[in-house]
Amino acid sequence: MQITREVSLKDAVEIIQGFLDHLSDGSVAVGDNEVKLDHMVTIEFEIQSTTNELELEFEIKWKVPKPAAAPASSGRASGGSSASSAGGQSSSSAASEAATPASVGAGS
């Protein structure tokens, strides 16, 4: 999710300070989306310029932990005339391990 607003520099600093306050607690919210950050992050600073615009970008990336694998269920065959029993298999889709950036960008 990305939110873009034109605000004064003073207001931009206050918004960024709000992000910093939450980041120190290990989470940040953009709109209705709140994410938790890992202890180790990668931080990136970037300045881009075009003929009519400058952009200063701060970006924080971290790895999303893999979900814990579900324990394998052991199916027990009950007695009967059949010599073998097919056990049920369950599969679950794992969440992707993509980094989720929390970025704050300012442009003029």
Question: Characteristics of this structure?
Answer:
alpha+beta; 1 helix; two-stranded antiparallel ribbon; elongated; 5 strands; 14% helix; 108 residues
Give the helices and strands, then pairings.
Blueprint: H1 9-23, E1 27-30, E2 33-36, E3 42-49, E4 54-61, E5 102-107
Antiparallel strand pairs: 1-2, 3-4, 4-5
Q: Could you give a short description of this structure?
A:
This protein has 108 residues and is an alpha+beta fold.
Largest sheet properties: 3 strands, antiparallel
Indicate the overall shape.
Answer: elongated
Q: So how many helices?
A: 1
Would you identify the regions where 5 or more consecutive residues have pLDDT less than 50? 78-108
Query: Separation of termini?
Result: 21 Å
Task: Find the structural class using helix and strand composition.
Answer: alpha+beta
- Rg measurement, Å: 24 Å
| Tally of structural domains | 1
Approximately how much beta-strand content do the residues carry? Answer: 25-35%
Mean pLDDT: 72
Beta-strand segment tally: 5
What level of helicity do the residues show? 10-25%
Q: How are the strands ordered across the major sheet?
A: 3-4-5
